[in-house]
Amino acid sequence: MSQDTTEIWNEFKDNIYHFILKRVKNESFSDDLLQDVFIKVHLNKDKLKDETKIQSWIYQITRNVINDYYNKDKKNSGEEVPDLEDEEVGFYGKQEMFCCLKPFIKELPEKYKIAIELADIDGKKQQEVAEILNISLSGAKSRVQRAREMLKTKFVACCNFTMDEDGNLVGEQDCAKCNP
Question: Is the dihedral of CA 36, 40, 42, 48 positive or negative?
């Protein structure tokens, strides 16, 4: 593998942390689980055969670490283990399918780019987005929704995704940007 663990850490730590925090809902445990994920990444990175799949590989490790956490803790608390295979990563489904997400976000008008990054990348609640941007809650919700719609349009146009009856992106990625 050409990337070292530090490069991998710098690229993925924030998204993985928010992914864990959304499911564990405890900052201290999330920090610990994030460390566990990157220890496993470091110890096993040479086993990854296709470097283009690193993101999905890291998310699989993360899901396994979270499952282990719940299975170990379940014996003591009786808490139910969430179904991590079907859960969404971000707002469009499995984030590893959308390698164009960051470039598309960068193409958005500034006010929408900031709103979507705060809400969906940084995982802030829309009330927090409103406070940070010094706008009303309804204004924040509107900006985030408009940004999502702009991104969906970009995915449909570039990557040949389609929209299902619920307005969600579906299909296999066939993207000139991602698969030149």
Answer: negative
